[in-house]
Amino acid sequence: MKKIFSNKYVKFGIAVTIYILFVIWLRNYWFFLGIPIVFDIYVSKKVNWTFWKSRTKKNNVVVEWLDALIFAVVAVSVINIFIFQNYKIPTPSMEGSLLVGDHLYVSKTAYGPRTPNTPLAVPFIPNNVGNAKTYLEWIKRPYKRLKGFHTIERDDIVVFNFPASDTVALEKSDHKLYAQGYFNYYDFVRVKAYEKQRDDKAKNRKILPWWKYEKYAREYINTQYDVETRPVDRRDNYIKRCVAIPGDVLEVKASNVIVNGIPQKEHKGIQKDYFVTTNGMAINTKVLQKFGVPKKSANITNNPYYRLPLTKENMEKIASLPEVESVTVRQDRNEGDYDFMTFPHSAYYGWNGEFFGPITVPKKGETVDLTIDNLPMYQRIIEAYESNKLQVRDSIIYINEEPASQYTFKMDYYFMMGDNRHNSADSRYWGFVPEDHIIGSPRVIWLSRDMDYGGIRWKRIFKVVRNDT
């Protein structure tokens, strides 16, 4: 058997079969021109494709290490692009389903891997080192997704490129913006515009159209920060639950999700903030830690009033403690209270994070009527995601210089929400996720480090990630 597999023609047969299947999966049949190269590597050996190694004499240790390094880089790069990649959860938006410090194996074959938009890049390092990009945009490839095992279904947990990170103020990275109450660069713009408008009102100046305040804010930010745009595959990775798929009608009432008129399935990990009042006795910190409460919320100095993020199960357990007098769900807003940080950032809708919608998730091939009122709902789709020139002149909408009263979507879109409902920057605030931003599905937690209390969560290692968590 060993002799058979050492035969060069057998090796070539195995290699060329794998190569042909890969080309068929890739659906780029120009790569069939590479079959002669495979033949030369295994059979004719006319060209030394590993030119850094000598064929005629023994190579020294440095060359052998270089050869091993090149093989490892190529192999891991191919695996990361087409099979799976690792992802570490940085924020609490999916608690209590997935925790900060969970390291996930994310399957790219689940929904089908994408071919890279920017294939020229330094592997395994961030998008920027200092102010220098680690990728080149000399070659840009259009969106293409290979065949996957299935499509995204409602309630799937999904890893995707964050749409709003197409533009970034480098000195204010996303986590710094989030810490200051912003979710992304565009919220930074909105807040600066709002501050300018508020200043004009306070000083009895003429109130300008909102777009002029946004223009002022962008110019201010562009002069104060290094602002760059990023292609889809270089945008930040996020993880959320897909609560609505293309064509669904979604509504949020008191932080409860309703899709097509039916309340969302009560997943075990869905978590909300609750106000807990005690009789004066502090709740034991170890008890709160057991219920997954973050350290800052578990601080006994909060006694007798706590605001605790809890699943329904843990809320009921907290309510049964002898020192607890009352437990009520957090509600900061009422229906109709407009929050300008909420998508689509238009007072016409009057939505907020707790009372949102109804909203129809765009579906590929469907056509919607466009008006000045509903344009904010679709503006990002038309301009940023589907690459059209959009203008409004004299209350008339122009797309690619043509008057437009309708628009037909070129892609499917998804509505994503975090399971930690009161502590998640999600589609309620920045809108739809286009299909070309989808990365994959988390499968296994291979490491979990407790970033709050310290140590490793041994019980979570090799835990399978289930969508019904």
What this model shows, in words?
The chain has 469 residues and is α+β, with helices and mostly antiparallel strands. The protein folds into 4 domains: 2-80, no CATH class; 85-251 and 414-464, Umud Fragment, subunit A; 257-329, Alpha-Beta Plaits (2-Layer Sandwich); 367-408, no CATH class. Helices cover 27% and strands 23% of the residues. The chain has 12 helices and 24 strands.
Give the key terms.
469 residues, alpha+beta, Umud Fragment, subunit A, Alpha-Beta Plaits, 4 domains, eight-stranded antiparallel β-sheet, four-stranded antiparallel β-sheet, 24 strands, 27% helix, globular
Chain-wise SSE layout:
Blueprint: H1 2-5, H2 8-26, H3 35-44, H4 61-82, E1 84-88, E2 102-107, E3 128-129, E4 132-133, E5 157-161, E6 167-169, H5 174-179, H6 185-202, H7 210-224, E7 227-229, E8 237-244, E9 249-253, E10 256-259, E11 262-263, E12 271-278, H8 285-290, H9 295-298, E13 305-311, H10 312-319, E14 324-329, E15 355-360, E16 367-369, H11 375-385, E17 390-393, E18 396-399, E19 402-403, E20 406-408, E21 413-417, H12 427-430, E22 433-434, E23 438-448, E24 463-464
Antiparallel strand pairs: 1-2, 2-23, 3-4, 5-8, 5-23, 6-7, 8-21, 9-10, 9-15, 10-11, 12-13, 12-14, 16-20, 17-18, 18-19, 21-22, 23-24
Helix pairs in contact: 2-3, 6-7
